[in-house]
Specification:
- The chain has about 350 residues and is of the alpha+beta class.
- The protein has one domain: Endonuclease/exonuclease/phosphatase (Deoxyribonuclease I, Chain A).
- About 25% of the residues lie in helices and about 30% in strands.
- The strands form 4 sheets. Strands 5-6-7-8-13-10-9 form a 7-stranded mixed beta sheet. A 6-stranded mixed beta sheet has the order 3-4-2-1-17-14.
- α4 links the parallel β7 and β8.
- The longest helix is centred in the middle third of the chain and has 25 residues.
Length: about 350
């Protein structure tokens, strides 16, 4: 009898060791997006409308102000997503950057130059010259392909032509696992929300078509749409045209999941206007991030990086994001938008 008990004890110990040795360990990554509010250099580019961001322009945009802006933004980026399990951002989408020079100045700043960041930038046809870009940690992310997709806006006056930012698709591998990301800055609400909605719907449809084509190749595709979408999670561009479900239990077929909806429903936002918060800055993920829990990259959570130091404490913008400019008056702030980010995980077997 004693021998049987000892044998059983040994078997249990071996069994527990095997379970422990094959345990699934999570590796975490932070992926963010930040509209950095007109990050222009001080040099006049005759091909775009950037005259105001020069020393002689209306904003008196000097090298000192530019350097302070770069330092401010770098300090924010260095803090996003950092905790005991994550050493900051592995990937970061940017909007409202003028060119690759300002990105180089940003990632080479002392706050960020130890992170081994590289970047992908495409010069869009936007008349103001503001582009989107993707910054990535070269030690964990490898770029395989970059494709810009144009957004052809529509107007009631068919003779009117206005160019906007392209949708930037970056396909690569995060720690060896396939990942596709689009960085977006959808058309603004200039002229009114309803009147301009058609152009954001078009931008959403561009993203939807990219995802649909990826799904035909890989039904388990990990696809991320991030950007300043100039719409909230409940607008038609997200719900109808991108087909981004706002609740996990409502996902069906090839729909996406919009984790920003939970934050929006709590009254949280990334930008404010006329005493109202909006959540225009969003990160949306394809269904396999949340429906396939057995393999591949998994969605964990989404957040708004709304630290106190990013919020204005006085004046007419009290409670709003601490911006760089009040029209032409320099405010020495960060951006009129707050960054957003999500945490994803990779399961690793020990």
């Amino acid at each position: 009898m004693l021998q049987h008990r000892l044998l059983l004890l040994v078997l249990l110990m071996v069994s527990n060791f095997n379970i422990w040795s094959q345990a699934s360990v999570q590796e975490y990554y932070a992926i963010g997006f930040y509209n950095v509010e007109n990050l222009f250099d001080t040099i006049d580019n005759p091909m775009i409308w950037d005259e105001e961001f020069t020393p002689s322009g209306s904003k008196a945009w000097t090298k000192d102000k530019y350097n302070e802006k770069v330092a401010n933004i770098a300090s924010v980026i260095s803090l996003i997503g950092r905790n005991q399990e994550i050493d900051g951002l592995s990937l970061l989408g940017l909007s409202e950057i003028e060119n690759d020079t300002v990105i180089m100045d940003l990632i080479s700043h002392p706050q960020l130059n130890s992170r081994n960041y590289g970047f992908v930038h495409h010069s869009s046809p936007d008349r103001r010259g503001i582009d989107v870009a993707l910054v990535y940690d070269t030690t964990v992310f490898q770029v395989d392909q970059v494709v810009p997709y144009p957004v052809h806006m529509q107007f009631s006056d068919t003779s009117k032509v206005r160019r906007t930012r392209d949708v930037l698709l970056v396909s690569g591998r995060l720690d060896g696992l396939p990942l596709h990301i689009t960085v977006n800055h959808w058309p603004s609400r200039s002229g009114g929300e309803k009147r301009s909605a058609v152009n954001r719907n078009i931008a959403a449809t561009v993203n939807r078509r990219i995802l649909d084509s990826l799904y035909t190749i890989d039904p388990e595709v990990r696809f991320v749409v991030m950007g300043d979408l100039n719409d909230d999670p409940d607008n038609a561009s997200l719900v109808k045209h991108l087909r981004a479900a706002r609740k996990l239990n409502k996902i069906s077929g090839s729909e996406m999941y919009n984790p920003m909806s939970n934050l929006y429903n709590k009254g949280l936002g990334s930008n404010a206007n006329r005493d109202r918060w909006s959540l225009f800055d969003q990160i949306v993920v394809s269904a396999p991030f949340v429906t396939n829990t057995q393999s591949g990259l998994q969605f964990i959570e989404a957040r708004i990086f709304n630290k106190n130091f990013l919020i204005e404490r006085k004046g007419k913008y009290k409670g709003y994001p601490k911006r760089t400019f009040d029209f032409d008056a320099y405010q020495s702030g960060f951006s009129d938008h707050l960054p957003v980010y999500m945490v994803i995980a990779k399961s690793v077997t020990d």
